[in-house]
Amino acid sequence: MVGVEVAVKGLTKSFGSQKIWQDVTLTLPAGEVSALLGPSGTGKSVFLKSLIGLLRPEEGEIVIDGTDILKCSSKELYEVRQMFGVLFQDGALFGSMNLYDNVAFPLREHTKKSESDIRKIVMEKLELNGLLGAENKLPGEISGGMRKRAGLARALVLDPEIILVDEPDSGLDPVRTTYLSQLLIDINAQIDATILIVTHNINLARTVPDNLGMLFRKHLVMFGPREVLLTSEEPVVKQFLNGSKIGPIGMSEEKDDSQMAAELAMKEAGHHDGSQEVSGVVPQMQATPGMPVRQAVARRQARVRSILHTLPPEAQHSIIASLGDGDAATQVIPAYSDSGAESSSWGNG
Ligand SMILES: Nc1ncnc2c1ncn2[C@@H]1O[C@H](COP(=O)(O)OP(=O)(O)OP(=O)(O)O)[C@@H](O)[C@H]1O
User: Which keywords describe this protein according to UniProt (predicted)?
Assistant: First the structure.
């Protein structure tokens, strides 16, 4: 079973007079891993909550398995929600329940399974997340990384077709972040779910997802195959990927042109802001040896091949290199143009 596609079109969300983002259009390809980047406060969590119907954007469509969740009945929304597993930032565990009961909770709430069937599923998910032996611990007695893995175990018990992950790296050291990233890739290999990760973590963004997008200035700057964002010359994307002060993202808000020019002049005069220039596409994280073959890889290759001509030349070069062939169907198309890109699925901004 392949996870389902999530098709978002023209989505706009405000709180009162505060517009969070507008006209967001993107498709999470079925069974692939995607990530959404963006500076703090750009509405990434609001986007995740909109996808599961916890928040209601005022315009646009969110079509999941043929149902527009902004127009459907509450019964249909309930059914669509059953397809989701969500890992919130802190794991969102019940503090008074041990890990076993936390992970068993959705099964007891939403199914009529017997306690012995529940036990089988819970122990399997705890094992998958490296938590065997910790089932009697309370969330307050374990580390942040374990809490996240317990949250992930709980998100998996109803066999989700779509998994949403809000900042898997928050509060974790780089090594634990890599383990959790590996777990997400391995879960994708095992159950082929559609996964969306919201993150600030540049390393995770560069190595984990099949597709990458970024929110900035109340818009989706771009969304598409990872190579598009990773080779982008867009100033805000480059700044974000480099964690640099040089660029349109400021401490708490966006900068104006004069401030940006002054900072660039400082850089040219030799002031170093501590960031490290990184560029290009690094190899993607693979499923752990011994896991099932990650079907998303071949599906994505076929999909990316079919839209290759709509992508910017740099992204095309990188994809062709990764496909490892040079046949006529995968030559860079120099005639790429912005108008072509607008009608394609990689960008809308
Ligand atoms: N329920 C709500 N009511 C009113 N405003 C809200 C609500 N939820 C979020 N916001 C506002 O929406 C904006 C975006 O918040 P959100 O948490 O989605 O950002 P984010 O990109 O996930 O940030 P971070 O990376 O820091 O977690 C913020 O200004 C926040 O105050």
Answer: ATP-binding, Nucleotide-binding, Transport
